[in-house]
Write a structure and sequence with these properties.
This protein has 484 residues and is α/β, with parallel strands linked by helices. The chain is built from 16 helices and 24 strands. Helices cover 32% and strands 23% of the residues. The chain has an eleven-stranded mixed β-sheet with strand order 9-8-7-10-6-11-12-13-14-15-16, with helices on both faces. Strands 17-18-22-19-20-21 form a six-stranded mixed β-sheet, sandwiched between helices.
């Protein structure tokens, strides 16, 4: 594509050099630049792309988009100056990849918890309706049935548009996408057109990045503020910020709730570790999911399907066949007759949701043993809260490592223990080695008890000092069960 066509999508302050040149690719990482590429110099949270302009040119960049010109200007390179490269990169990528979201229906799911479950179930639902569908999620990206591994909840704008472009080229009719607060704040979704947005809930998370809860809330709200009039905005009326999210949106607002009147109203009639009987808009349906938080997630899926034109009866039939997403309330039965649940809960609120769900089913018949840690180099403020919530709702707590990253595991554990009283500590043991912590929990369990192994869910690695070592909570449990 010609450079002049690509830059029409942004406000250009000035250009130096020819704009009728052919561009063969677009990059914001100088290491990936090849001959004929356009390099966009973005000021990131860690590094400033302007420092890598020379490197990008050495690797063959034909043009550079920047906010300030470098000291040396090369004759055979075109420089395009814009006011904000972070804002421009998404729009440039959208244009380069042929505006993919004008060719498919993209729905974004945002909130602290439930994004993965809702986006993945919508992907599965619409595939079961016979469509080709794309998925962009924390666990894995999919172009119909082709799995593409993922590193971030929402990829960078160039990767994002490349994936969406492939989805459109391969005939996908729908795409469902987790929209993280980082991606909204960093304008990674700039240039994309959404036909709908879903809000799950909002609680403390990512304050290492956003600094305040208000900034985090604003980032989520900005997604709904940007939805067009033709889109829908489906919000959780049970969350106290549910209506705040949609107060300035131009989109058509719809609500879902387990507690109050809403467009999509649900009620848990029966529950067990095998699933629930739900009432959704006065129709009963058996589902293979556990816990009120999952009932809420399923309501969002039901509502979105209806808003996308599907018949309620058809949606309920499909819902009854759906299975939980990997690492989300994944229940395993031990030969010694206790239950182990693996869950991705890594925020205080997600932990509360899962523990509440366990207590709803147990109804006092059995103890709860929780294995929990906290990630390194992330929001330190939630560490004592994670420990407090675990102790509050468990009979025994084993505090251990999660992904320590570049921190010492014992330091993270100490931060968690700092939130506990002397009385709390009677319930707690701390074991740095996560495998040993899980094994200890299993040894403590009696028939009828439930062990919650929280924090890592679907992850099959443990990140220590920048290296990902193979580690899978579910595998560890199965290995222990085999030897019981």
């Amino acid at each position: 594509m010609k450079l002049e066509e690509i830059i029409r999508s942004v406000t250009v302050c000035e250009t130096k050099g020819a704009t009728d040149i052919e561009i063969t690719g677009i990059q914001m990482d100088s290491r990936l630049v090849e001959t004929g590429h356009l390099f966009v110099a973005v000021k990131g949270t860690q590094t400033d792309g302007h420092a890598y302009i020379e490197k990008a040119i050495e690797k063959g960049a034909a043009a550079v988009v920047c906010e300030t010109y470098p000291e040396t200007l090369h004759e055979n390179v075109t420089y395009v100056k814009v006011a904000d490269t972070e804002d421009a990169v998404g729009r440039l990528a959208t244009t380069f990849y042929g505006d993919p979201t004008s060719k498919l229906d993209l729905v974004g799911v945002t909130g602290t918890n439930g994004k993965t479950t809702i986006a993945t179930l919508l992907y599965k639902m619409f595939r079961s309706f016979g469509y080709k569908v794309g998925l962009l999620s924390t666990v894995c990206n999919y172009i119909d049935d082709e799995a593409i591994p993922t590193d971030h909840t929402t990829p960078d704008p160039i990767t994002l548009n490349r994936l969406l472009g492939r989805m459109a080229d391969e005939g996908c009719k729908y795409a469902f996408m987790e929209v993280s607060s980082h991606s909204i704040a960093q304008k990674r979704i700039g240039g994309l057109k959404f036909v709908g947005g879903i809000f799950t809930n909002i609680t403390r998370d990512h304050l290492d990045y956003h600094k305040t809860f208000e900034n985090y809330l604003k980032a989520k709200k900005a997604f709904f503020d940007g939805l067009p009039k033709s889109a829908f905005a489906l919000t959780n009326a049970d969350d106290r910020n549910g209506m705040v999210m949609v107060q300035n949106t131009k989109a058509k607002v719809a609500t879902y709730s387990l507690r109050t009147l809403a467009d999509f109203k649900g009620k848990v009639l029966e529950d067990g570790f095998e699933g629930m009987l739900l009432d959704i808009n006065n129709r009963e349906v058996n589902v293979q999911f556990i816990g009120r938080f999952n009932a809420s997630n399923l309501l969002a899926v039901y509502g979105a399907c209806c808003l996308l034109g599907k018949q309620p009866e058809d949606v309920l039939v499909k819902l009854s066949t759906m299975r939980p997403v990997a690492g989300r309330f994944d229940a395993l039965r031990s030969p010694r007759n206790y239950t182990a649940i693996v869950d991705y809960a890594h925020t205080p609120d997600a932990l509360v949701n899962v523990l509440n769900a366990i207590h709803e089913v147990l109804r006092g018949n059995g103890r709860v043993i929780t294995v929990v840690g906290a990630g390194g180099n992330r929001d330190k403020g939630k560490r004592p809260l994670m420990a407090q919530e675990s102790v509050k709702q468990s009979d025994k707590v084993v505090i251990t490592s999660d992904n320590p990253r570049f921190e010492e595991p014992q330091d993270i554990i100490n931060d968690m223990l700092a939130g506990l009283t002397k009385e709390d500590m009677k319930k707690v043991i701390s074991i740095v080695d996560r495998k040993e912590a899980i094994r200890t929990a299993c040894m403590l369990a009696q028939p009828g008890d439930v062990i919650l192994v929280a924090g890592k869910g679907h992850e099959n690695y443990q990140e220590v000092k920048g290296v990902k070592h193979h580690f899978d909570d579910k595998e560890i449990l199965k290995e222990i069960f085999d030897n019981e």
